[in-house]
Q: What sequence folds into this?
């Protein structure tokens, strides 16, 4: 008997919404060798993640009237420096899922091929995607089968929010910027970072963007220059915050018994010694919101402490803002960022190497890819990376 053929088509919000939510639920299985694994919950709206991008698409694979696969993509213009230009159109691939029962039938490959064709139809120069390094199926599909090249391994750092506030030194001033000031600073200091989005103003003005803050030392005489004519203090740091919890939630997958006991122990410590400020880990089994910190930049030999102060500030903001149900601060940092040591995070929940892969969709861009991937991801010469909150 001939095997039934699957069909790839565009997502239809009216018809497919429930089917895709169910498909994502059935695909939520993490690597077996991880104690903690974070899953996403799209809150019943599968398009929510990509909707904030300038151009986006979702495709589904259908077999015998059942949805068996899904993929999403978004297109934007970013900084990728080549010999002839600084800006390139890139297509981001995310949310690829195939039902376990229908894997290894070529559905995943076909979904990516169709999405790449949509990128090509929209004059995209490069397609890129991110995956966990230990996701064998995904790594083999994109690298071995589709010719994607690994080019960055940024770290995803996760810090739980606890109910008590973190101390910020009184020597440090933290100030919120207007979006036009923030845009000016980003275009002045981060525009050469890889993947810096040309529409950074749209990100900063988006309702999900809670704001941009700068930190500097009160004693720094040049601080009054901040934001004017692009002049900055000798040591300073900036970051922006995106309320990702409005779009989707995270939750921890199942945990071994030994860890359940460990977590209960944590709860006890918190009750007996509240001064230890242990977060309630039990909270993470229900879907929780998080703030994503993006556009982190700092300058000056003493700026590490300013980075730390900014993260503490964001933590305190999350702790008091119960409306957002924000239980974690998440950021993704790439390149040779020594100041990443100053970002508070829990190793247990973080991912030290998120694997970013890229592919040239136009033959003339192949040399660029070679240039782009030549430097080792952790080399000191690697350029900073701008992680767009819309890609999270
Ligand atoms: C990754 C995933 C989408 C692959 O879907 P799929 O329909 O099974 O993939 P395909 O059948 O098109 O496989 C194409 C190629 O990918 C590679 N591949 C796919 N699954 C693999 C696996 N489990 N182990 C090793 N290689 C695998 C193979 O090279 C395969 O070609 P082959 O079958 O000729 O050897 C699917 O495993 C899945 O949904 N995983 C869970 C969600 C996920 O990890 N998504 C990726 C996030 S970036």
A:
């Amino acid at each position: 008997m001939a095997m039934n053929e699957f069909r790839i088509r565009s997502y239809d919000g009216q018809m497919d919404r429930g089917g895709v939510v169910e498909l994502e639920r059935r695909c939520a299985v993490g690597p077996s060798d991880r104690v903690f694994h974070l899953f996403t919950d799209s809150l019943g709206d599968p398009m929510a993640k990509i909707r904030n991008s300038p151009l986006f698409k979702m495709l589904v694979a259908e077999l015998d009237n059942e949805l068996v696969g899904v993929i999403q993509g978004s297109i934007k213009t970013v900084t990728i420096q080549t010999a002839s230009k600084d800006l390139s159109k890139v297509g981001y691939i995310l949310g690829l899922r195939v039902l376990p029962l229908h894997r290894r039938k070529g559905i995943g490959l076909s979904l990516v091929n169709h999405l790449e064709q949509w990128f090509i139809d929209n004059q995209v120069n490069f397609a890129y995607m991110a995956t966990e390094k230990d996701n064998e199926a995904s790594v083999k599909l994109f690298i071995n089968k589709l010719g994607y090249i690994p080019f960055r391994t940024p770290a995803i750092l996760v810090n739980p929010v606890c109910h008590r506030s973190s101390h910020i030194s009184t020597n440090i001033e933290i100030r919120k910027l207007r979006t036009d000031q923030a845009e000016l600073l980003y275009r002045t200091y981060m525009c050469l970072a890889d993947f810096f989005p040309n529409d950074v103003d749209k990100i900063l003005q988006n309702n999900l963007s809670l704001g941009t803050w700068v930190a500097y030392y009160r004693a720094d005489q040049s601080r009054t220059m901040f934001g004017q004519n692009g002049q900055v203090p000798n040591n300073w740091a900036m970051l922006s915050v995106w309320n990702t919890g409005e779009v989707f939630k995270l939750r921890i997958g199942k945990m071994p018994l030994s860890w359940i006991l460990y977590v209960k122990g944590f709860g006890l410590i918190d009750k007996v010694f509240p001064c230890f400020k242990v977060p309630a880990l039990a909270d993470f089994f229900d879907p929780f919101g998080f703030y994503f910190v993006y556009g982190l930049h700092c300058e000056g030999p003493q700026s590490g402490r300013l980075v730390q102060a900014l993260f503490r500030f964001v933590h305190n903001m999350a702790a008091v803002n119960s409306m957002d149900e924000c239980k974690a601060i998440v950021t993704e940092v790439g390149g040779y960022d020594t100041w990443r040591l100053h970002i508070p995070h829990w190793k247990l929940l973080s991912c030290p190497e998120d694997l970013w892969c890229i592919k040239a969709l136009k033959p003339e861009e192949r040399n660029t890819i070679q240039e782009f991937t030549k430097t080792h991801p952790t080399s000191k010469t690697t350029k900073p990376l701008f992680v767009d909150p819309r890609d999270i």
Summary: The two ends are 43 Å apart (CA to CA). Residues 7-154+353-391 form a domain with the Aminopeptidase fold (CATH 3.40.630.30). The mean pLDDT is 85.
